[in-house]
């Protein structure tokens, strides 16, 4: 039975909520057990706190549905948040569904940070340091401030690291990643490497005979051997991306959407999109024989002018 709308969480107030009064009184719910009064945390406020936590970790977590059958965490069963993982064969939105289930069950004090190899490079190069941020950004918190890799990777209980966002080759990139992984290993805290399905695999970067490249710039032989020795590989189920055409030119992309099948098509990553053949621009036909050419008067005078005699060549210098 509800008592109106809570003025704090803006949801239907549970029985005993004090925030429907003129002066809100916090998030505690009082109840009587016999003659004694007990105070409990409002369940609605737990939902509000969870939403704020998901927002801080990754804003996209609010828009995806959790996966209750996730192999990453099951209450009373498997808990892979205590292990180093190399998660492959997945898409980022698909992985976020599993991560949302994990965050929802873990203790609120369990600190999860989502970052990427591109962020590691920025921190290492000093682009995210205190000196690089303007005073307004430091005060408002628009952009995070990290002076070193330890600031970024030292505190979290679990680091989720997206690999493959750096697509151009950088000699220092693999060393930066290896330093970050060694830092986490020295602290004894787990790290998840998430390999997105973007045509690249977490393998040493190399060029082939055709000039193309394979692997990832953040991975070399040292990183590959270290991950192979300290990380367990886990494949998450792949889901085809669905596209919903709204008819006005806008499309919505996402896995597992419930939309009309007549407006849905599946994207095949192996088949390149069809491109229209270029057509030559149409030009009006011109009758060259009967076309009259208008010559400006000043140009016509120059054409009729007699050619002048050429002056003999004289080398540059003082005349004698």
Helix segment count?
A: 8
Structural class designation: alpha/beta
Low-confidence segments, given as residue ranges, are 240-276, 278-286
Number of strands: 12
Indicate the percent of residues in helices: 25-40%
CATH architecture of the largest domain: 3-Layer(aba) Sandwich
Structure description:
- The protein is built from eight helices and twelve strands.
- It has 320 residues and is of the alpha/beta class.
- It has three domains: 1-45, no CATH class; 58-239, Rossmann fold (3-Layer(aba) Sandwich), CATH 3.40.50; 240-273, no CATH class.
- The longest helix is centred in the first third of the chain and has 15 residues, at 43-57.
- The chain starts with 27 loop residues before the first strand and ends in a 16-residue tail after the last helix.
- Residues 240-276 and 278-286 have low confidence and may be disordered.
What's the short story on this structure?
The protein has 320 residues and is α/β, with parallel strands linked by helices.
Helix and strand arrangement:
Blueprint: E1 28-33, E2 36-41, H1 43-57, E3 85-90, H2 92-105, E4 112-116, H3 117-124, H4 135-140, H5 149-153, E5 158-163, H6 173-187, E6 191-196, E7 206-207, E8 213-214, H7 221-230, E9 232-235, E10 242-245, E11 251-254, E12 264-266, H8 297-304
Parallel strand pairs: 3-6, 3-9, 4-5, 5-6
Antiparallel strand pairs: 1-2, 7-8, 10-11, 10-12
Helix pairs in contact: 3-6
